[in-house]
Write a structure and sequence with these properties.
Layout: H1 2-15, H2 24-39, E1 43-49, E2 55-60, H3 63-75, H4 79-86, E3 90-92, H5 103-112, E4 116-124, E5 127-136, H6 144-163, H7 170-198, H8 202-215, H9 220-229
Antiparallel strand pairs: 1-2, 1-5, 3-4, 4-5
Length: 234
């Protein structure tokens, strides 16, 4: 089955987090893409908390989803924010009914073409470190087994974060998450440089950045820093 093959890829990539030169940001981006395919949703976003406990965007399977997640973070309103603050899954079968609950988010999501959303918590013991969010273009709730699989994938993302430095305490976890978030800033800057240089949109600019990293057997962060500093071009 297609899901079985994709699941196998996810767990093979998780095993790769044991190596010293593990590229965490690329892993999280691939995970959002795998989630979209495995669960049969339109898009996936992944948010993490920084050292101050504020949610920030780390990965999204599409550029439109990235923009939507940023709107949610700016207003601190939406399913992902609610899931993070409560520690409980949030599901909305029809976003046309969510205008009073999350006005800015619901309007932006519907304008993009999303009709329903599910947000699942990423947990480390009793701590919520982020959320994994699934967007669909059709109204309706995901069935029970699909939600369980989505939560398993959220757990995979959490394991990938923790395993990357064998984190054992809260301070070390906060430092690791902050490093991931800071890395994301450099990548966004590099995307902007590439987009302007080649006349691309941000989604295609990111694809070019990822290809350059893989072709050169380098981490995304290394390539992004070189592009931002001007010491390398692609």
């Amino acid at each position: 089955m297609m899901n079985d093959r994709l699941l196998a890829e996810v767990f093979v990539e998780l095993a790769d987090t044991l190596v010293d030169d593990f590229d965490l940001i690329d892993f999280l981006h691939r995970l959002t893409e795998h989630c979209t395919e495995i669960l049969g949703v339109a898009a996936t976003g992944l948010l993490l908390a920084d050292q101050r406990g504020a949610l920030r965007l780390v990965a999204a399977s599409t550029e439109r989803t990235r923009v939507l997640e940023l709107i949610q973070l700016q207003t601190d309103q939406g399913p992902c924010a609610e899931c993070f603050h409560t520690g409980r899954p949030v599901a909305v079968a029809d976003l046309s009914t969510a205008g009073d609950r999350w006005p800015a988010f619901a309007a932006a999501a519907r304008q993009i073409g999303y009709a329903s959303v599910h947000a699942l918590p990423m947990r480390r013991r009793t701590d919520i470190i982020g959320t994994l969010n699934f967007f669909s273009t059709r109204p309706g709730l995901l069935d029970g087994p699909t939600v369980e699989l989505g939560q398993a994938l959220a757990d995979v993302a959490t394991i990938g974060l923790l395993q990357s430095r064998a984190i054992r305490d809260r301070d070390a976890l906060a430092e690791q998450l902050q490093t991931a978030l800071n890395t994301r800033v450099i990548i966004e800057q590099a995307k902007g440089v590439i987009a302007e240089r080649h006349g691309l949109d941000m989604e295609h600019a990111f694809q070019m950045l990822r290809r350059a990293a893989r072709t050169g057997n380098q981490q995304l962060t290394e390539v992004a820093r070189a592009i931002v500093s001007g010491s390398a071009t692609i």
